[in-house]
Design a protein that fits this description.
Largest sheet: 7 strands, mixed
CATH architecture of the largest domain: 3-Layer(aba) Sandwich
Mean pLDDT: 95
Distance between the termini: 44 Å
CATH superfamily of the largest domain: DD-peptidase/beta-lactamase superfamily
Strand content: 15-25%
CATH topology of the largest domain: Beta-lactamase
Protein name: Peptidoglycan binding-like domain-containing protein
InterPro entries: Peptidoglycan-bd-like, PGBD-like_sf, PGBDSf
Pfam families: PG_binding_1
Order of helices and strands: HHHHHHHEEEEHEHHHEEEEHHHEEEH
Length: 471
């Protein structure tokens, strides 16, 4: 049965026995911020589902437990409960504790944690990934800009970063950089905020976006008409886009994430790739000459265009040798250049990159396993009032022996339209931002705690963007 078909009152036992109905109820409650997503949407009517139903009934002022047409219609038609956003606003400590409880109750595979490894298959937005690239080409109506907003910087120049703007982040978030975007005269204006934003750190697998983007830029510089989606490495079965998806999603169709990223780094000498990043971000202190703990799955890669049959790139044969030490700013700068490509002047864009190639990278990055933005939207109860979302990201995590700490890194680009107060005369509010965060805790604290902390602080960032506490 579906909620739409409820005419007469059902007993709680009847509801419990109907897996399809319970699943629909859980999805509706998730959208209102009353029920966690991911693996908890399972059709099993347990205490968590019952408590969420009671919270809903209390919020809208209907009897509980009374599973009748009135209950069904309220659950079907209610788009948002402002009280949910209010609770998150008033009590950040409780938000973190709720997320930690969810994380502890979720048991992913060994070595995995709830939000970092939730997976795209458990995301509401999986069906929308094919729309991301087109959405990123849309120019939105200009909005009132803060006086601190400035034009996006040219390649090689570091913008002014407000070092106090992220003081609200928890102390477990060691470094962070956020860039908020707004439209003005068809151009993106930006505001940069940081917490130790230029400190060089290991950002684990989050930095794998760099060799992916570099390969696209290099290929399109040499052959502007080539679409990277038509390219392969050494053998036709090794499609570049499949390798990029393996790197982002860890699915392992062609290669492991580490071996794939190491392979793409071999299209440049370590020094040349490091210089390429420095010339884009302007940060001359970074180091990007290392690998990812595995040998490249192809040690002498060559990139071919399937359409013309021509070789586009070849490896110079220099081995990886060094460290990968970047700043949160560097990664935020690079992912924002991908997301805002259509709205940046030529001297601010990824050099040489063509959109026909970049849109494949957008689609690959939509498949990141980390779903912190999903969790933020769920926690804030905004799932039903956010439209046209784009969520692209890359996770990273590991245990640092030198720092004796569990660490999670997360780089993401997000945009959506907030329809909470929209009407025929008042369009929804366009929001867009890029972010990078690194969280760390030392034993006996656990990776589960870092995961919940990252989820809680990403939630707080999205909340502040929604309510214009970060403009």
């Amino acid at each position: 049965m579906k909620l739409e078909n409820i005419i007469s009152r059902l007993s709680e036992e009847q509801v419990k026995a109907d897996n399809e109905l319970v699943t629909q109820i859980q999805i509706k409650l998730r959208g209102l911020g009353l029920y966690p997503g991911g693996k908890f949407v399972d059709g099993d009517f347990g205490p968590r589902t019952r408590n969420a139903i009671k919270s809903f009934c209390d919020a809208v002022g209907i009897p509980f437990p009374q599973y009748d047409r009135n209950f069904a219609q309220n659950l079907l038609t209610r788009k948002q409960l402002p009280s949910v956003l209010g609770m998150v606003t008033s009590n950040r400590t409780q938000t973190f504790q709720n997320l930690l409880d969810i994380a502890k109750a979720t048991r992913p595979s060994e070595g995995e944690v709830a939000f970092l490894h939730r997976g795209i298959q458990n995301s509401k937005y999986i069906a929308e990934i094919v729309e991301y690239a087109e959405r990123l080409t849309t120019k939105h109506e200009p909005q009132a800009l803060p006086s601190t907003d400035t034009s996006y910087p040219k390649r090689g120049f570091i913008p002014n970063i407000d070092s106090q703007g992220l003081n609200f982040l928890h102390s477990d978030i060691k470094e962070a950089c956020i860039c908020i975007g707004n439209f003005a005269n068809g151009e993106i204006k930006t505001r940069w905020l940081g917490k130790n934003a230029l400190e060089e750190r290991q950002f684990w697998s989050a930095s794998k976006i760099i060799p992916i983007l570099n390969t696209v830029c290099d290929a399109n510089t040499k052959a502007p008409g080539v679409d990277i989606a038509n390219c392969y490495i050494n053998e036709s079965r090794n499609k570049f886009t499949d390798i990029a998806l393996d790197i982002i999603s860890y699915r392992g169709k062609i290669t492991s994430s580490n071996a794939g990223a190491a392979c793409l780094k071999l299209f440049q000498t370590p020094t040349a790739l490091e210089t390429w990043v420095k010339n884009i971000t302007g940060n001359q202190q970074l180091s990007f000459r290392g690998g990812y703990g595995e040998n490249a799955f192809i040690r002498q890669p060559k990139l071919f265009d399937r359409i013309s049959g021509k070789q586009i790139l070849t490896s110079p044969g220099a081995p990886l040798d060094g460290q990968n030490l970047l700043s949160a700013y560097d990664l935020t700068r690079l992912i924002s250049m991908l997301g805002w490509h259509w709205h940046l002047p030529g001297d601010s864009r990824l050099p040489g990159a063509q959109w026909q190639s970049l849109k494949s990278i957008v689609q690959a990055m939509g498949n990141d396993r980390a779903r912190y933005i999903d969790v933020a939207i769920e926690t804030l109860g905004l799932e039903n009032v956010i439209t046209s979302p784009v969520i692209i990201s890359k996770l990273g995590n590991g245990f640092s022996e030198s720092r004796t700490s569990h660490e999670i890194t997360y780089v993401a680009f997000v945009e959506f339209i907030d329809e909470r107060n929209s009407s025929a005369n008042q369009p929804g509010k366009f929001k867009t931002l890029a972010m990078t965060l690194r969280a760390a805790v030392q034993p006996p604290r656990t990776l589960v705690e870092v995961d919940a902390r990252m989820a809680a602080d990403v939630t707080e960032i999205i909340r502040r963007v929604i309510v214009n506490e970060i403009i």
